[in-house]
UniProtKB/TrEMBL annotation:
This is N-acetyltransferase domain-containing protein. Residues 179-343 form the N-acetyltransferase domain. It comes from the Eukaryota. Signal peptide: none annotated. Pfam families: Acetyltransf_1. Gene3D superfamilies: 3.40.630.30. One of its GO terms (molecular function) is acyltransferase activity, transferring groups other than amino-acyl groups.
Length: 343
């Protein structure tokens, strides 16, 4: 007996408050997978509650009816104070189950809707689970003629730390050095901006000029989403050695979005010390259930740091894939035909 063909549809939404209940249910069940979307949607909801609707926000939802609605994919095309985000796509289905037969027709429908909504230059990159990113890039190129780059902008693992995996340790002290790990304040603006600038310079093509770095640092400090690690040598002024930012926050999950150490302070364990302290803050003070982060496949040094803190699936001595770790890819499109945003 042949299997019954399930019907799926796509719909676009321009206000967070107009998203259907099943979408929020999917977010609640998969807050880590949807970490690139849910925190921004929550911000939009708060503004909409006060009568403010932000232009430039769009979500496309693919739903299968069996007969009850089940959300398959959500695409976001949104922006914040720093600029336009990439196209984000996430699925309620775990990556191993994302077969070509499942993904291709649904993404084809998404692409058709997106073509009716945005200018072609708006789609400068897509960030999604590997198979989803590659299928979207192929379909978008087929429909628009705008080629995608062979080498991804970013290829990373999405790893998670929870209270059970978190490795509590006392702060290690180096003789002659004083450490201070704390939230950044306005007086730290220029020091934080310098680290934001350095991080962006190593994140081609999403570089910042000095003014953009100051703006980003100001937003991070105002939103209380950045901590710093100060180091002080004897008879010298303290130096901000590292920063950790966690800019995507929902009720149960925070995502660390920026970890950077001043090149002059590397090799001192600052990043590990600060990531651990921030995780402790998020678990004990903010009452988060999980902390997520992306780490590039080829960044073995960072993977070791995060593994020591308690992030799963990053053990350099264990190559067995972890079911909790997803692999995501950002694919860029011809920069001669698009306008880059920032994230």
């Amino acid at each position: 007996m042949p299997s019954r063909k399930l019907e799926f549809t796509a719909a676009a939404y321009y206000k967070a408050s107009s998203l259907p209940a099943e979408v929020f249910a999917a977010f609640e069940q998969n807050p880590v997978t949807f970490n690139c979307m849910l925190p921004h949607i929550l911000k939009c909801l708060k503004l909409e509650e006060h009568g403010r609707v932000i232009d430039g926000q769009c979500w496309i939802v693919v739903t299968t009816y069996n007969p009850e609605p089940r959300v398959d994919f959500v695409l976001s095309c949104t922006e914040n104070e720093m600029g336009k985000y990439p196209i984000f796509i996430a699925s309620t289905s775990p990556p191993p189950s994302l077969s070509d037969e499942f993904v291709r027709p649904r993404l084809h429908l998404i692409v058709e809707h997106l073509l009716d909504i945005v200018d072609l230059y708006r789609v400068y990159s897509v960030f999604a689970p590997d198979a989803v990113a590659y299928w979207f890039a192929q379909l978008w190129t087929e429909q628009t003629g705008i080629r995608c780059y062979d080498n991804p902008y970013y290829a990373a693992k999405l790893s998670v730390c929870c209270s059970k995996t978190f490795k509590y340790r006392s702060v290690t002290i180096s003789p002659g050095l004083e450490y201070n790990l704390r939230p950044a304040v306005e007086a730290d603006l220029h020091a934080v901006a310098e680290l934001c600038y350095g991080f962006a310079q190593e994140s081609e093509p999403f570089v910042l000029d000095a003014q953009g770095a100051v703006r980003e640092a100001s937003i991070l400090i105002q939103n209380a989403t950045v901590w710093i690690h100060e180091v002080r040598w004897p008879n010298k002024a303290p130096m901000v050695a590292s920063l950790v930012a966690f800019t995507r926050n929902s009720a149960t999950v925070s995502t660390i979005t920026k970890v950077y150490t001043n090149p002059g302070a590397r090799g001192m364990g600052c990043a590990q010390r600060l990531v651990r302290r921030v995780c402790k803050h998020l678990f004990s003070t903010e009452r988060k259930e999980k902390v997520a982060l992306y780490v590039a496949h080829n960044n073995l040094a960072a993977s070791k740091v995060y593994h020591r803190v308690g992030f799963t699936g990053l053990d350099p001595e264990n190559s067995t894939p972890s079911p909790e770790v997803e692999s995501w890819t950002e694919i860029g499109f011809d920069r001669a035909k698009v306008e880059l945003g920032h994230w």
